[in-house]
Amino acid sequence: MKSIKMIKPIKPFKNLEEEANFWDTHDTSEIFKNPKVSMSDLLELEPKKDVVMTVRVQKVVKDRIEKMARIKGVNSTTLSRMWLIERLIKEDTGNPKFAF
């Protein structure tokens, strides 16, 4: 795994919602010194996912997800996973049994 030098340290996040909010409201160029950090470098920092889940949807739904993902600059799988996690957090707020 590559080491990425940071301008200022980021305090640990309390939960995924706090982390998502942080990255939604901060420009990574303010945080990372090296402007040539690639997406693959950042993906190496993400924990590996070890379970696969298949979800069947209508073609029109898949096409809309892919279009929205392109607009957001992520792939459709990542966007779908983000939405699932956001919904789980929303549904399970206050239930420590389902904490991430």
Concise summary:
The protein has 100 residues and is mostly helical.
General description of the model:
Helix content is about 50%, strand content about 0%. It has about 100 residues and is mostly helical. The protein is built from 5 helices and no strands. Helix 4 (about 60-70) crosses helix 5 (about 75-90). The chain folds into 2 domains: about 1-45, no CATH class; about 50-100.
Walk me through the topology.
Layout: H1 16-25, H2 28-31, H3 39-45, H4 59-72, H5 76-91
Helix pairs in contact: 4-5
Average pLDDT level: 76
Q: Helix segment count?
A: 5
Largest sheet properties: none
Beta-strand content? under 5%
Radius of gyration from the alpha-carbon trace, in angstroms? 16 Å
Regions with little confidence, pLDDT below 50 for 5+ residues:
none
- Dominant shape: globular
- Domain count: the total is 2
H/E element order: HHHHH
Q: Strand tally, please?
A: 0
Structural class: mainly alpha
- Helix percent reads 40-55%
Distance between the termini: 24 Å
Which key terms come to mind for this protein?
5 helices; mainly alpha; 100 residues
